[in-house]
Fold:
Amino acid sequence: MSHVYEWRDGTVIPDPFTGLEIPDALHASLHRHRENLARLVRSLQSAGVSEEQIETSVTVVVESYRDELLRAIKTIMRQA
Amino acid sequence: MIDTRLSDPKLNDEQGRVLALQRYQILDTPREAPFDRIAGLVKAVMQVPIAIISLIDSERQWFKSCIGMGDTTETTREVSFCTHTIQAREPLYIPDARLDPRFATNPLVTGAPFIRSYVGVPLCTPDGYNVGSLCAIDTIPREYTPSQIEVLKSFAALAAEELELRRVAQIDFVTGAATRRGFTVEVDKAIARYGRYARSSALLVLDLDHFKKVNDTWGHAAGDAVLRAVGAKLNALLRATDVLGRLGGEEFGILLAEATLRDASRSAERFRKAIEAIEIENDPPIKVTASFGISAIGPEHATADQWLAEADLALYAAKRGGRNRSCIAPSSAETQLSRPA
Structure:
């Protein structure tokens, strides 16, 4: 498993989660979120929702989940 | 129509459903942006005047987010559409409530907010309990396409995941117990229940004896193995209504619902013996013991911190008394003694 991230410009940064044990429940949540997001985009497209509204919906949902995810990760880091 | 409740036992398990909802510790919390944002998106995408994230408690529906219905925060379950939604796995779709015998005379249909059409999707936990609903409501009759209902299902899955992610953040991942913060919230709720309904409960605080020695001798991995084993053992012995919390290091709290001092003393003894019987694979096997402080709830406990401090005093007495034993907090003992026979 790689422990570095490489930006498009070639800059290499260490994986900030190296050494952090991610609980199974968080892995499962991340997996479900990814699936839910893909399902949302498919359903919005099928319902004929405008591209602009799809972009807004995805942005809002991703930002909300990100805030919650950061809170969860901070809690886990305090426990580690 | 096939009644899915017959083949889906969790749809009939009301007690389990309410406990699943309680795990989220979300009822009566303030409005929060992530949920309002999802309800706002539902309102915009479905083009409805009202969008609600409703959680179904035992006697009421409570709104985590309610867009378009003023400051309403809850209703009784009798008038709740979402109470019907959580009885199935599939969405509940009512094109015209006035034509539906279940809702035609509902006060929310005949009076404000004059609901005419409703579509609600259950909010389902990963273990299969419908704890609430995400719904789109209109004041005119509406026909929704299957694609539109699919959109609502997608938003419902995302709202349910927001709830679940919060729960993950409240769990100590080594022991599976609630974090100190999550546990304190539960203790505060028990104090409120006592103040309002005089519902008894008891608090145990336990500390693993000489745990530092385990870490110093066998390393932190062995220490974590001990904590994991203790967490698993205690979780297995607790009732669904009890709460286990990791208060820090090797100290745990156990909140026993509907328990008297006598119940709590018996439970502490059972837990003490169970911990004493744990053997962690090692050469030689690692064994641990625990000391317990016990405190039954009383009028003197106004906050979680006060109650925990009192149970802690009893814990220190158990430690001073030689460890691997339990002690009752002085005020609990006095209360017990002063009760008429």
